[in-house]
Amino acid sequence: MTTIVAEESPSYPAPLLPGLALTAAIGVASWAIAWVEQRAFGHPVVEALVVAILLGMVVRTLRAPSARAAAGVRFAAKELLEAAVFLLGASVDLPLLVRAGPALAVGIVLLVVLGLACSYALGRTLGLPRRLAVLVACGNSICGNSAIAAVAPVIDAEPEHVATAIAFTAVLGVCVVLGLPLLVRPLGLSLYQYGVLAGLTVYAVPQVLAAAFPVSVLSGQVGTLVKLVRVLMLGPVVLFFAVRHRGERGERGTLRIGQLGRLVPWFIVGFLALAALRALGLVPPPMADVAKSFSGWLTIAAMAALGLGVDVRAVSRVGRPVVLTVTGSLAVLVVLSVTLIRVLAIR
Q: Does residue 6 form part of some domain?
């Protein structure tokens, strides 16, 4: 019979401030680089959170963080990242699922599920570790870096795997932004259809804007709407992997109070709760904007911390299979998206 006993709160053996200060400094530098990109090109070519993880890796390569900073770096990589995912729920607009139309909404759900299955299978076939294959599949199928960052803590992913998945997904994301508009004529897509294609295939919301609006305003508006509906899948997918991971660990018997929240992590419950409150109109748009901005800052700091924990040599060892998996998964996603557009007769 399962019993519940009290579990002591974890204590941190070292001060958090040195490590948090280091991750914050890298985060500010990353934001500054993205700002320069914004001014030079009209949009960040490489997002700030990707810059943060790369800078963290550079700092780690030049000089590994001291033992005094280790506790703060670990805190930023886990607790700050969980808080960022929680706050992200305030920026999700659930009614978009209804406004996009039931057929398209069902199609998007089906696309995400098929994309996850195909990407994961491809990754495992190419020899990726199971958790890395999950991260790459989630990044490709849902919303790139945000999905990878959200799934990583619930499956206990290694920092090297998180960094690798984000780095290669981000690089390919830039290529998609530049190359996807070239498919409009060969595929005979209308401006509306191209917007749907961009929303279904491009990883991050800012990248959707960069890939769709230069084609037309209509493409940009449709792409953004479809992309946001696709992002709604993040909560259910993370919840699925949280429950599945716990089952794989076979955690039975004595169940501690602190472990109850690990079946359904607190930040996923919070994400879904904030999304529901937003849908009910209980989260005003200004407050949602603040939560989204704060979530972005926390994510950048967490990515810097992940970079600081990455051994570049470990990343290089798994690089080629990841490149092949991400590229192959993207090709499958484009084919599935075009098929969906044709089957649903989207004009």
A: no
In the structure encoding, which two tokens stand for residue 49, read together? 């959170």
Phi, psi angles (nearest 5°) of residue 233: -75, -10
The answer to whether residue 118 sits within a structural domain is yes
What separation, in Å, do the N-terminal and C-terminal C-alpha atoms of the chain show?
A: 58
Name 5's bridge partners: 256
Range of the domain at 138: 16-250+257-343
Q: Residue holding tokens 């499956």?
A: 155
Q: What is the largest CA-CA distance in the chain?
A: 64
Helix axis angle, 130-138 to 234-249, nearest 10°: 170
For residues 347 and 345, give the distance between their C-alpha atoms in angstroms, rounded to a whole number: 6
Q: How far is CA 130 from CA 40, 121, 209, in A?
A: 39, 10, 32
DSSP percent split of the chain into helix, strand, coil, nearest 5: 80, 0, 20
Region of residue 128 (phi > 0: left; psi between -120 and 50: alpha; otherwise: beta): beta
Any domain includes 47: yes
- Beta-carbon count within 10 A of 192 CB: 17
| CA 220 to the chain's CA centroid | 21
Give Cβ neighbours of residue 34 (< 8 Å, ≥ 6 apart).
44, 46, 47, 48, 51
* Token pair for 64: 């590994």
Cα–Cα distance for residue pair 329/346, rounded to 1 Å:
23
202-253 pLDDT, tens per residue?
Answer: 887 767 877 888 888 888 878 877 887 788 788 888 888 888 877 665 554 4
The pTM of the full predicted model, rounded to 2 decimals, is 0.67
Number of structural domains the chain divides into: 1
pLDDT digits (tens, 9 = 90+) for 46-77: 778 778 888 988 888 888 888 888 889 889 88
In a domain, 10, yes or no: no
User: Any idea which of 15-29, 185-199, 206-220, 329-343 has the lowest mean pLDDT?
Assistant: 206-220
CA distance 43 to 112: 27
